[in-house]
Amino acid sequence: MKINGMPPTTMPSLAPVAILSALPQEQRGLINLLQNPRKVCHASRDFWLGGLHGHPVVLALSRIGKVAAATTATALIERFGVGCIIFTGVAGGLGEGVKVGDVVVATDFIQHDMDASPLFPRYQVPLYGKTRFPCDPALSVLLFAASQDALSHESLAVHGFQQASVHQGLIASGDRFVCGAGEARQLRQAMASAGHDVLAVEMEGAAVAQVCSDYRLPFAVMRTISDRADDSAHVDFPAFVQAVASPYAQVIIKNFLELLLKK
């Protein structure tokens, strides 16, 4: 399968898989599953090395915002020589039919707050000549299948999300927590008018996608929808992460790594 015309990328077989988490609650669950865990401090960050479901892995927190996430991604590549980056986290739903409890697997990313006009077109990253950075098609196919399989199990039918769905499409990132209905509507309409049909919004993925593009490193992302990026975006957020997003991440990553072993 191709996404945005990009061919699949092959990951070096012996290189560790980087699992980048947006929140400590997600990472904590994965750390608890590590075999022979070892913590390495680098670039003012903690990186956890070990084995997970048959793969050597490096676990890291992206921290919040595009700059912090880009630093973490660069450290994973330069210091730990990872073969790919898989990102788990939460996001606000923007697209039609994308509801709380669903999962969005990214096909590509755009920065909704990028505006270097009139020097460059709105949303275009200066000197790159493009507005959207794609995820790796092969890894995204596996992550989509892993997510579908996870959500089909009753063990993840928590908090009334028995009908949760998996979507695939464009995700927007920006250094702003979108939490008002009016702001979310304006963002969705502005991006749609520019030809970008956005499914979800968050604060880190586009930066990691750009770093991975620079290094030609395979990259894939799944985001659990915690809210509709509206006036209820802050309600019970910690409880949602603990009870929903963290279990999602653990099962989806397990499924993904098992599928990766079969490739």
Explain this structure.
By secondary structure, this protein is an alpha/beta fold. It has one domain: 3-Layer(aba) Sandwich (Rossmann fold), CATH 3.40.50.1580. It is 33% helix and 27% strand. It has six helices and ten strands. The chain has helices spanning 24-31, 66-78, 137-151, 181-193, 205-215, 237-262; strands at residues 17-21, 35-42, 45-52, 55-61, 84-93, 103-111, 132-134, 166-173, 198-202, 219-227. The chain has a five-stranded mixed β-barrel, surrounded by five helices. Strand 3 (45-52) and strand 4 (55-61) form a beta hairpin. Helix 3 (137-151) packs across helix 6. The protein is globular, with a radius of gyration of 17 Å.
Keywords, separated by commas or semicolons:
Rossmann fold, alpha/beta, globular, single chain, disordered N terminus, 33% helix, five-stranded mixed barrel, 263 residues
The portion of residues forming beta strands comes to 25-35%
Q: What is the overall silhouette?
A: globular
Could you tell me the CATH topology label: Rossmann fold
Architecture, according to CATH? Answer: 3-Layer(aba) Sandwich
List the helices and strands and how they pair.
Layout: E1 17-21, H1 24-31, E2 35-42, E3 45-52, E4 55-61, H2 66-78, E5 84-93, E6 103-111, E7 132-134, H3 137-151, E8 166-173, H4 181-193, E9 198-202, H5 205-215, E10 219-227, H6 237-262
Parallel strand pairs: 1-4, 1-5, 5-10, 6-8, 8-9
Antiparallel strand pairs: 2-3, 3-4, 5-9, 6-7, 6-10
In short:
The chain is of the alpha/beta class and 263 residues long.
